[in-house]
Design brief:
By secondary structure, this protein is an alpha+beta fold. 31% of the residues lie in helices and 27% in strands. It contains 9 helices and 17 strands. The protein is globular, with a radius of gyration of 19 Å. The two termini are 28 Å apart. The N terminus is likely disordered. Bound molecules: adenosine monophosphate and magnesium ion. The site of adenosine monophosphate has 19 residues, from α8.
């Protein structure tokens, strides 16, 4: 953990989100870098009208943030839901929320998308500090996914002081939206990296790098080879600060309201769905290796855990699919 101190927390929030490297860039491809959802995004497309399609992907993601996910934009679904305590759901939103509730239940509350006001007390994005213990306990008592109801086409907050925060799922939702668009176009291959959640699209083999938790945004600890899908990483190095030798990071234990304390540096989850990979990476981080692996397995996903002992636990991933890039780490195959 001591090598992490070199990274400045404020910068970590925005600059260090990108973790993917890819050998998929070819002369045929076009690329686009942009900033949305408070993180850096990178997109690569091969196929007809690649440039136009990149711009379309960018505007789809920007619109998604503005109209759905953002807690700050007055026009967004999440803003209105938090303000009014209820909101009407589309079919697509119903599916997303049912999935999140399902993972909340399966993870025994380790995943909880109602912690918005608790996260705000820590203020990881901007001038973070340790909240007052009593204020934290009181704020936490108003959160809890089990207070959320979905009925008659609406989502209803049982406690009006609960604050919905899609920080652990929004980037995955962005990937699913991008994928739906790509499927309507004549595109051979695309890679969309939404701040650490990545869509690998097309009938091809992709090589992706898992971010080195001790390194900078482009430093990788291992490379994995995949035939498409979505891959998301949650790490304690993304948004954090240090006080009196303790590292406080942005993934919270919903039972205490404090950052999760365990032996993990990061968790990477691979599966077909963007939202599921994003949600599971956060949930698995909270649960730790044993329970996290079981959770990933339940959803047919692969989870890779990197520990503070510099071990990379690859779970159900084949050893042939991973290549070590940093010899300070060792690969552990649990199977
Ligand atoms: P991710 O980077 O996908 O792991 O998401 C982390 C973000 O999700 C945080 O910055 C918070 O906004 C939110 N969050 C923190 N802890 C949890 C949790 N236990 N369950 C769900 N969302 C969380
Ligand atoms: Mg997540």
């Amino acid at each position: 953990m001591k090598r992490i101190t070199a990274i400045i927390a404020a910068l970590a929030a925005v600059v260090l989100a990108v973790f993917l490297i890819s050998d998929a860039r070819t002369a045929k491809g076009e690329t686009l870098d942009f900033f949305s959802m408070n993180t850096y995004m990178h997109a690569e497309i091969e196929g007809r009208n690649a440039k136009e399609n990149l711009n379309e992907i960018k505007s789809i993601i920007e619109k998604l943030d503005y109209s759905l996910l953002s807690r700050k934009s007055n026009n967004s679904f999440v803003y209105q839901l938090n303000k009014n305590g209820e909101a009407s759901l589309t079919k697509e939103l119903t599916e997303y929320f049912l999935l999140m509730i399902n993972v909340s239940q399966s993870s025994n509350g380790a995943f909880d998308f109602t912690l918005g006001s608790v996260s705000d007390l820590w203020s990881f994005g901007n001038n973070p500090s340790i909240p007052d213990k009593n204020v934290l306990a009181d704020t936490l008592s108003h959160s809890g996914y089990e207070k959320i109801a979905i009925k008659d086409g609406k989502i209803i907050l049982g406690d009006k002081s609960a604050v919905i925060d899609l920080g652990a799922s929004g980037k995955g939702i962005a990937l699913d939206s991008a994928k739906k668009y790509l499927e309507t176009q004549d595109i051979e291959k695309a890679i969309i990296n939404a701040g650490g959640s990545v869509l690998l699209y097309g009938d091809d083999t992709f090589t992706v790098g898992i971010r080195n938790p001790y390194g900078n945004a482009t430093s990788t600890v291992a490379e994995i080879t995949l035939n498409g899908g979505c891959i998301s990483t949650s790490g304690c190095y993304e948004r954090y600060f240090e006080e009196n030798g303790t590292l406080y990071h942005h993934i919270l234990d919903p039972k205490t309201g404090y950052p999760v304390q365990n032996n993990l540096l990061s968790v990477t989850v691979i599966c077909e769905s963007g939202i599921l990979s994003d949600v599971l990476s956060t949930a698995c981080y909270v649960l730790g290796i044993e329970k996290g692996s079981a959770l990933a397995e339940k959803y047919g996903a692969t989870a890779i855990f990197i520990t503070k002992e510099n071990e990379i636990h690859i779970g159900t991933l084949s050893e042939n699919s991973i290549r070590l890039m940093d010899n300070d780490f060792v690969i552990r195959s649990d199977g």
